[in-house]
Amino acid sequence: MNNIDGIIKSALAAEYKSPQHINNRVLWYADGKGRAKMKKNMKFKQVFAALAIIMCLAVPTYAAIKLLTPAQVAKELGNDAIAAAFETEDAVLIDETQEFDDYNVTLLGLVSGKTLSEKMRESEMAEAESVPADKTYCVIAIENADGSPITDITDTPQFCVSPFVKGYSPVFVNIMSLNGGYLDKVINGVRYRLLSCENIEIFADTTVYIGVTKGMFPDRAAFTFDETTGEITRADGYRDMNALFELPFDSSKADGEKAAEIIARIFPE
């Protein structure tokens, strides 16, 4: 039975992206909880047949798509220097997915800091000199929730991917006020976005977020800003995409002076 359990788990992990309720049923049997409820005198063939039926139910219409790494995305978008930056020790690889009715959103990773140009020059990339150093580069993947491939950018609506900072309303501190830009590309059925903006790692002594909503600009209805605590959360009752990721920055990378300069520019007296 242990071998069968392993085969089932490996097969699901490697090839299939079936509905979660089907996966739960398969894993419920595979991890031993289901077996505990089987009759003790059930023969091996009966057990195998039961698991085979569940496997058949789990076969999806589409195979799971293996996501690219941030470095691979940057390379696909034609920027070998940023790809090299994503392969340095300064890169933060996250691979966190949030699911919605129509789309799944994955924050793959980011890299930022004043030393980026030096890191890229060490990798001997010719174009490293032209890549702004004191920036943050972030990679997001967007997939159809039903597992079907995205064939073109026009298959999906506009998406806004934006950084936010605890203590400041997303209405004011966002991708626009932080001088952001992006590149999009559909690769192997997934829409990838490479986002760039001012270095948000300088805010590492507080909570920094990446939010994703539909539309050209951040949807102010998608998130709640607590004026007392400064926290930003997903709005209760919001019925569309409002992904919100907290970034695991190293607080020692914070730069209060630089942060104050940016905030003073956004909120001039």
Describe it.
28% of the residues lie in helices and 26% in strands. A hairpin with a 3-residue loop joins strand 1 and strand 2. The longest helix has 15 residues, at 44-58. Mean pLDDT is 80; it is low at 1-30 and 32-42. The protein has 269 residues and is of the alpha+beta class. Helix 1 packs antiparallel against helix 2 (20-30) and helix 2 runs antiparallel to helix 4. The termini are far apart. It has helices at residues 2-15, 20-30, 33-36, 44-58, 70-76, 80-85, 116-122, 256-266; strands spanning 92-99, 103-113, 135-144, 159-165, 181-187, 190-198, 208-214, 223-225, 232-234, 242-246.
What order do the strands of the largest sheet run in, or round the barrel if closed?
1-2-3-6-5
Estimate the mean pLDDT confidence: 80
Outline the low-pLDDT stretches.
1-30, 32-42
Helix content: 25-40%
* Strand content range: 25-35%
Order of helices and strands: HHHHHHEEHEEEEEEEEH
Taking the alpha carbons of the first and last residues, their distance comes to 70 Å
Characterize the biggest β-sheet: 5 strands, antiparallel
Rg to the nearest angstrom?
22 Å
Number of helices: 8
Categorize the overall geometry: globular
Structural class: alpha+beta
Total beta strands: 10
